Amino acid sequence: MKRLFAALIWVFAWVGADAQPYKLLGGATALGGDCYQITKAAPNQRGVVWRNDKIKLNEPFDLEFLMNFGDRDQNGSDGMVFILQTAGNDKLGPNGRDLGFSGIFPSLGVEFDTFQNNRTGGTGYGDPEFDHIAVVSNGNGNHTTPHTLFMPVPALESGRNIEDGRGHLVRIAWNPTARELDVYFDCQQRVKLRKDLITDLFEGQTEVWWGISGSTGTAYNRHTVCLLPRTPFQSTMTVCAGESGTLTSRMAVDNQYRWFPAEGLDNPTVRSPKVRPLRPTTYTVSYRNHCGQSVTDTIRVSIATSNLELGKDTTLCEGQTLTLSTHCQNATTVLWNDGTGKATLTVHQPGRYWVRVEEAGCVFLDTVLVRLESCQEANVYIPDVFTPNGDGVNDVLTLHYSGIDSYEFFVYDRWGVVLYKGELNKAAWDGQNYPAGLYTWVVRYRFTDQKQQKHEVRKMGQVQLWR
Ligand SMILES: [Ca+2]
Ligand SMILES: [Ca+2]
Ligand SMILES: [Ca+2]
């Protein structure tokens, strides 16, 4: 009887890896949760928070932040920049106009710039007078150079000041298929950049460090950022058969979720219902996002099953062996109750046997009871005396049998030398030229029982040769 015991192993691995999710450099400090102060409100500050979970650019990402640029509009500076880079997570540029970002390359930066550098002319830095968003590469914030990939636009469509002491919702989304980077500020799309980041910027590397830096100069502000709960929305998930998993929606602004269908869910109105589907199911969840938009996401839940099957409880004929098999082609590990790890187990004794296999990240268990049975379906009989003296009576040693498919019959002398080997339909041992005495025999035979199961039996005994 198959029994399943399963667990999603990767869930535990993921929790373990999340223990130290960020690295702070410069004046950056952790504020608790996923919030960081990048700079305090003081001149000539700089700081960066690097996340330890690298981003894969060959997969989509969709990140949301709450950025606060301080409350000093007059003499406030310099802003923050969202960075992707492959130089390492020990990098921090200088303070001032490059937002703690210069000198880091290869890199891409989405800058949120609150200070117009060189506003009176000079060498020119290309900063407009309004608080702006731009996309720049390789740590160079000078918008008069080709390093600016997306020219400055007002952070808010209205061009209003963003150093207002309030948190601003920033969303940065990457679509690797369209090779498009989208930046939203307070729910307004402000940037749509088409660029092959992997090839054009990162020399083919697909995994990049990511983080947020910021700085102040002679003018200053306090800069903070919070990563909004951003459980990466899975479009597919797998639940081990017989076990439950957890669906997770993105964060809703009003904490109201509607999952459909409700079948297989413990509660269809919470953000993270437990799911135990009886069949593969596509669930949809509707909610309102931070921008107040009604959003629908779908998750396809599949069920990981196993071919593990030790079969029904069975019997073992006395003196025989039985072979148990997992029938699993794709098991990553196998463990039988005797500690062995092969796909099959040879059973000599009755008892309860169990096996544990890991397959597709799930654990499956099965047990089978093996009872002892005296099988009368096939038998052999070998006399214990024979007299090869030519009198026509009992002159040869003959193996008597019934119900046997095949056998081998061996006679040994006292030193273990084979004197005779008999097979099905082959003549019996005539014992000629051998002295009177005790000889050992071994017979190995095979038969098929009424359930069409094949068995092999080995028997051993002795025969007295008289003259
Ligand atoms: Ca600036
Ligand atoms: Ca700028
Ligand atoms: Ca401003």
Detail the topology: elements first, then pairings.
Layout: E1 2-3, H1 9-17, E2 22-26, E3 29-32, E4 35-39, E5 46-56, E6 61-68, E7 79-85, E8 107-113, E9 132-137, E10 148-154, E11 167-175, E12 180-185, E13 188-194, H2 197-201, E14 207-215, E15 223-227, E16 236-240, E17 245-246, E18 258-260, E19 274-275, E20 281-288, E21 294-304, E22 314-317, E23 322-325, E24 333-336, E25 344-347, E26 351-359, E27 362-373, E28 379-381, E29 385-386, E30 400-402, E31 406-412, E32 418-423, E33 437-448, E34 454-465
Parallel strand pairs: 16-21, 22-27, 29-34
Antiparallel strand pairs: 1-27, 2-5, 3-4, 4-15, 5-14, 6-11, 6-15, 7-8, 7-14, 8-9, 9-10, 11-12, 12-13, 17-19, 18-20, 20-21, 23-25, 24-26, 26-27, 28-30, 31-32, 31-33, 33-34
The structure holds calcium ion (3 copies).
Task: Give a brief description.
The protein has 467 residues and is mainly β.
Describe the protein in words.
3% of the residues lie in helices and 45% in strands. With 467 residues, the protein is mainly β. The protein folds into 4 domains: 21-227, Sandwich (Jelly Rolls), CATH 2.60.120; 236-304, Immunoglobulin-like (Sandwich), CATH 2.60.40; 314-370, no CATH class; 379-465, Sandwich (Immunoglobulin-like). Strands 2-5-14-7-8-9-10 form a 7-stranded antiparallel sheet, with no helix packed on it. The protein has a 7-stranded antiparallel sheet with strand order 3-4-15-6-11-12-13, with no helix packed on it. Strands 1, 22, 24, 26 and 27 form a 5-stranded mixed sheet that branches. The radius of gyration is 39 Å and the shape is elongated. Residues 1-18 have low confidence and may be disordered. Bound molecules: calcium ion (3 copies). One calcium ion binds next to loops.
